[in-house]
Design brief:
The structure is a single chain. The protein is α+β, with helices and mostly antiparallel strands and 239 residues long. It contains eight helices and eight strands; from the N terminus they run αβαβαβαβββαββααα. The chain has helices spanning 4-18, 62-69, 92-95, 117-128, 154-169, 197-200, 205-210, 212-221; strands spanning 53-59, 75-83, 103-110, 136-137, 140-141, 147-151, 180-183, 187-189. A six-stranded mixed β-sheet has the order 7-6-1-3-2-8, covered by helices on one side. Strands 4-5 form a two-stranded antiparallel sheet. It is globular, with a radius of gyration of 16 Å.
């Protein structure tokens, strides 16, 4: 492990395990792991969609976010990285100081004829993270772990804003949704050792406690959207 903060995540996970923490401690919103949430009322019809699209989502440690969305049917690539700050501060050591404005995020490339923006957000709000936690997810705290949608088009903005309102009006969650929505002004891939971290380290204590339950919940709650074989970042692409 080449990062102080990455090593600390393992230590945190181990401490939680020793303390007898529930295995769902960092998984999505625990109250939603065993049930579906409503589909977005506003979405882009798959039949009229283009060939490829991207969206950037932040919702806690990018290890788990990447691991979850790599199992979504129609997704062709998920890259872990940073969004919300300047290019020259998009490094792990700088972002973890919580002074850069960046959030740990994932850039999701997908085929909109197979999976819609609404489908992606359905996974994002139900099992990928807890949208009611402000500037934290599970054992991680700070603005870099915030819940945020970085949209790449007016359609994505419209769908995201409408869905947050829809879920809020329906009182799907016991607490208010705190997810921010703003235009993506730049996404910067994280260091190579962060890419596909969950796939390469499935038994790391942090992953076992905080992220494997999200994948299990995804497979259970949304089997029609779940792909058993995750897509991976091409070897050497980001190293």
């Amino acid at each position: 492990m080449s990062s102080r903060r990455a090593s600390s995540r393992i230590a945190i996970g181990f401490a939680l395990a020793l303390a007898g923490a529930a295995s769902l401690a960092g998984a999505g919103c625990a109250e939603d792991l065993d049930r579906q949430i409503p589909a977005p009322a506003v979405d882009t019809p798959k039949a009229t969609a283009g060939a490829s699209d991207t969206i950037v989502l932040a919702g806690g440690c990018f290890w788990g976010q990447q691991g979850v969305f790599e199992h979504l049917k129609g997704v062709t690539r998920v890259v872990a990285g940073y969004s919300g700050g300047a290019k020259n501060t998009a490094t792990y050591d700088q972002v973890t100081t919580e002074t850069t404005g960046h959030a740990e995020a994932v850039q999701i490339t997908f085929n909109p004829k197979v999976v819609s923006v609404g489908d992606i957000l359905k996974i994002y709000f139900s099992v990928a993270h807890d949208p009611t936690e402000l500037n934290r997810q599970g054992p991680d705290s700070g603005t870099s772990y915030r819940s945020e949608i970085f949209f790449n088009s007016p359609d994505q903005q419209k769908i995201a804003e409408a869905y947050v309102k829809q879920l809020g009006d329906a009182k799907i969650f016991k607490r208010p949704i705190v997810t921010k929505i703003e235009q993506n002004k730049g996404f910067y891939p994280a260091e190579g050792y962060h890419q596909d971290y969950l796939i390469h380290n499935p038994n790391a204590m942090y992953i076992v406690i905080n992220d494997q339950p999200k994948i299990a919940a995804f497979k259970k709650v949304w089997p029609d959207l779940y792909n058993d074989k995750p897509v991976m970042v091409p070897f050497g692409l980001l190293n």
